[in-house]
Design goal:
Layout: E1 13-14, E2 19-22, E3 37-44, H1 51-60, E4 66-69, H2 74-85, H3 95-109, E5 112-115, H4 122-136, E6 141-150, H5 157-160, E7 166-168, H6 173-182, E8 186-189, H7 194-206, H8 213-226, H9 249-253, E9 259-263, E10 268-271, H10 282-289, E11 299-300, E12 305-307, E13 312-317, E14 320-324, E15 327-328, E16 336-356, H11 360-378, E17 386-391, E18 414-423, H12 426-437, H13 439-442, E19 447-466, E20 470-478, H14 527-530, E21 531-532, E22 535-538, E23 541-548, H15 554-560, H16 563-570, H17 584-597, E24 599-605, E25 610-616, E26 657-659, E27 662-664, H18 666-676, E28 710-711, E29 718-719, E30 724-727, E31 730-733, E32 752-754, E33 757-759, H19 761-771, H20 774-792, H21 811-831
Helix pairs in contact: 1-3, 3-4, 6-7, 7-8, 11-12, 19-20
Length: 832
């Protein structure tokens, strides 16, 4: 194991007996009403949320009973599958950071944390939380409620043959049973429907039953509003160009995560911390209500199918909103549950290059033409897999822009070409990155800052599985820390619960200060000036709302926002094989494809006087494999993931090696190499084929524009974000990304590394086999570095004294000295 690994001194105690059940709905027997109302907070709305914001909510709202960390989405679930295939953890690697920060105050306050960070390995996450609590001297009971088994007979053909497992969207029942049986401090789940994470503590505390569908609908409404965190309280909402949504930066900085107050009778109030910034009003609630719900008359959750069409919001104060009107659909609960299974969908290769100055758009078009042509020379037909667009011109616009028709006033002098391909074979993706890099000396003038990457892509296939075929399991463990410490919690100014759930205040007193008025008649106006919107995605479908600023404008909007109008506007999103020059014939083929494959649904939501629009089969495969610029992308190493693939020992930057992005401790890297003497199958993980091993992480998109300046690991000179490639956690210039021994150009798919020094496989094998250990490899690298450094030093004039003019020792003495060093180093490695 790694140097920082220390075995725990105590054993974990099983609490009660584990239980296993199928997902058939079973009514609770004489459920106990424990409270008149329960306070449930959202501590995280997605996997990249801010732990410090959750701590602030705990500090400011002392009456919280539960804190839910909702950190799992389709994209992050796919990441966990990918991590498992590469020998990593199946649970969220952020869990250590979250628990170290939140556990002390949560345990002291008696606040139960519920989280789906267990992902595909809830039991592993349980062990990690117990380990963290023991290290901090905190006694905790950690329960798990997770998917246990699926009968093969219940799986459809598309899911039955997936080797990487299938995840089911479970409901609230497993969490309720876990709370009832074990009274845990923390509950860790596998994939559970977002709203169900919040519904579970309501059912448990308020004594609701599974056939009280009106209560379940109201509770699920609260959960749906909370599940995306600060999106309810002003996050992803502020817009300086919209007078109805603008707010000072100070208010945006001081966002509060939301919480809900839910009564035994099903009355729901959502709120933010007293004195916090952001905004909680009708507009933020309406946006979140319609976020990714599909048909608002039948929003399907595992526990209840909900009709949201008559939901309304009543302002209670600047920090509280009353929510009412959710009711069950005619089909109260679904007979089948949603299943997701991962499968390989191809190899992604992408490249970007910046052009500036006069006619930069035309130069980008020329570069795009060259890369496509070069790809066709090597792999005929492969260019049809590539999508191209210009960042700064047409990369995020739904409405088509024909570049030849761009008015001169629109001309810009700072653009970035992006080409993104999804290929059947890895060699095609690699060839694409090579051809794109060739633009440096073979493309148009004035280009620079090339970034490229290729990686294996997976998507999540969906299906429905009968409840009787799905099994879940609950269990709990408690630690017995031997190093208990007195904890002092630093508590900020706190709020106390309010009893004004039904005391309405005038809406006018809660306004933005901007007078609401209808859109003018008999003249063209921008849709942007009439309404606001929020867009989301589910698989290959997009869901966006149209919410008028002035509610009466909904009647005119209904006449404009028709399925045909929507198809016309969003049709450019289907440019599946687009290049930058589209002919009229291309447009005709695209429109035909849209008519045959894209379905548009427009729903009216009466309670909030809005429209909800769903467009099916439009997102180029969905969030996990889309070639568009706004997809989620990027992989990096968390500290908990930076470990040897073979022994799982924790690594440090000064003591690791890697093969094609797969990490090893030096001991096992040397052992595996000695067994074969080459880069053979020994370097595959035990869980996956070699082609599923993780590639080195691409640099984060944000770093390309952040202005952060790093030093190149190879030349120690400034490397700017747009010219940076990150490998083994170190920044390099593109031109410096080469073998430390022979200067051979490297690719992300073929390299070896030792202590952050990069080699081509040929020279690494050659240097290694000469001595059979690491010392010779490092010595060769040091000699190369010293030689290159000496070439840069000015010559010494005759007679000038320097410190390094001593006579060199004879070769025999030098060899003996090197052998002694190697023996000492081998001894140190054996001891470690």
């Amino acid at each position: 194991m790694g140097d920082d690994y220390k075995p725990l001194s105590e054993e974990y105690i099983n609490i009660g007996e584990p239980e296993t059940h199928n997902c058939v709905i079973k009514l609770r027997v004489s459920p106990t009403k424990r409270r008149d109302k329960v306070f449930v907070g959202c501590g995280a709305g997605f996997g990249g949320d801010r732990p410090l914001a959750a701590l602030k909510l705990l500090q400011k709202v002392k009456h919280l009973n539960y804190l839910v960390l909702e950190c799992l989405a389709e994209r992050t679930l796919a990441d966990r599958y990918q991590a498992v295939k590469s020998g990593g953890d199946g649970y969220d690697p952020h869990i250590s950071e979250w628990m170290e920060l939140l556990l002390p105050l949560a345990v002291e306050r008696g606040v139960c944390i519920i989280t789906n960070m267990g992902a595909t390995n809830a039991l592993g996450a349980q062990e990690k939380v117990l380990e963290i609590a023991s290290r901090m001297g905190i006694r905790v009971t950690v329960g798990v409620a997770h998917q246990f088994d699926i009968a093969k007979a219940g799986l459809g053909a598309n899911l039955r043959n997936l080797n990487d497992g299938v995840s089911i969207y479970l409901g609230a029942a497993p969490i309720v049973e876990c709370l009832e049986k074990y009274n845990p401090n923390v509950v860790i789940t596998s994939r559970v429907a977002d709203a169900a994470l919040f519904l579970a503590p309501m059912v448990y505390e308020l004594g609701w039953n599974w056939d009280e569908y009106m209560l379940l609908a109201q509770g699920s409404l609260a959960g749906h509003l909370l599940e995306c965190g600060c999106q309810l309280t002003g996050g992803y909402f502020m817009h300086p160009g919209d007078k109805y949504r603008d707010m000072p930066l100070e208010k945006l900085l001081d966002l509060s995560l939301p919480f809900a107050e839910v009564s035994y009778e099903g009355k729901v109030c959502v709120a933010k911390a007293e004195g916090s910034g952001g905004v909680l009003n009708f507009s933020t609630c309406a946006q979140q209500l319609l976020y990714e719900i599909g048909d608002p008359s039948a929003y399907i959750t595992p526990d209840v199918v909900i009709d949201f069409r008559d939901v309304s919001f009543q302002p209670l104060s600047t920090n509280k909103i009353g929510c009412d009107g959710a009711k069950p659909d005619a089909i109260s609960a679904p007979d089948n549950l949603l299943a997701l299974g991962s499968k390989h969908c191809g190899w992604k290769g992408w490249g970007e290059i910046s052009y500036g100055g006069y006619k930069c758009i035309e130069r980008a078009k020329a570069a795009e033409f060259l890369v496509r042509s070069w790809m066709e020379e090597v792999h005929p037909g492969s260019s049809k897999c590539i999508m191209s667009y210009i960042i700064g011109v047409d990369s995020l616009k739904a409405k088509a822009i024909r570049l030849e028709n761009i008015p001169r006033a629109f001309d810009c002098e700072d653009i970035r070409l992006r080409m993104d391909g999804l290929f059947d074979e890895e060699k095609h993706a690699i060839q694409f990155t090579k051809d794109f890099i060739a633009l440096y000396t073979n493309g148009p003038a004035g280009g620079g800052g090339i970034s490229t990457e290729h990686k294996k892509e997976i998507i999540l296939d969906k299906g429905l599985v009968g409840r009787e075929h799905i099994y879940w399991k609950i269990s709990a463990k408690q630690n017995q820390p031997t190093n208990s410490k007195k904890r002092i919690a630093i508590i900020s100014e706190e709020t106390t619960p309010s009893n004004n759930l039904n005391e309405l205040v005038p809406i006018s007193s809660l306004g933005t200060g901007t007078h609401l008025s209808p859109a003018p008649s008999n003249q063209k106006v921008r849709l942007y000036d009439v309404a606001h919107s929020r867009a989301g995605d589910k698989g290959n479908d997009i869901n966006f709302s149209i919410i008028p600023h002035f509610t009466a404008d909904i009647e005119r909007l209904k006449n404009i926002i028709t399925p045909d109008w929507v198809k016309t506007v969003i049709s450019p999103l289907t440019n599946r094989t687009t290049d930058l020059t589209w002919s009229d014939d291309d447009m005709e083929l695209r429109d035909k494809w849209v008519d045959e494959n894209v379905k548009v649904e427009v729903y009216e939501v009466r309670g909030v006087h809005s429209l909800n629009v769903v467009v099916r089969n439009i997102l180029d495969g969905g969030v996990n494999c889309s070639r568009r610029i706004d997809r989620h992308d990027g992989m990096t190493y968390h500290k908990s993931c930076f470990k040897c693939t073979h022994c799982k020992g924790t690594l440090v930057m000064s003591n690791y090696s890697s093969m094609d992005g797969v990490l090893y401790c030096r001991t096992h890297f040397e052992q595996l190499f000695k067994e074969s003497g080459n880069f053979s199958k020994n370097f595959q993980t035990s869980k996956a084929e070699k082609d599923s091993q993780p590639k080195a992480p691409p640099s984060k998109v944000s770093s390309m524009f952040s202005g952060t300046i790093d030093k190149c690991r190879a030349c120690n000179k400034t490397v700017y974000p747009l010219e940076k490639v990150t490998m083994e956690g170190e920044p390099y210039h593109k031109l410096c990304f080469k073998c430390a021994h022979g200067g051979c150009p490297l690719t992300h798919a073929s390299y070896a590394a030792l202590d952050g020094v990069l080699y081509c496989k040929h020279h690494f094998a050659q240097l290694f086999m000469e001595k059979g250990n690491y010392s010779h490899v490092l010595q060769a690298a040091n000699q190369k570095h010293t030689a290159s450094s000496s070439e840069e030093q000015p010559p010494v004039e005759e007679g000038e004294h320097t410190d390094d003019t001593q006579s060199e020792p004879p070769p025999e003495a030098e060899e003996e000295k090197e052998e002694e060093k190697e023996k000492e180093k081998e001894k140190e490695e054996e001891e470690s």
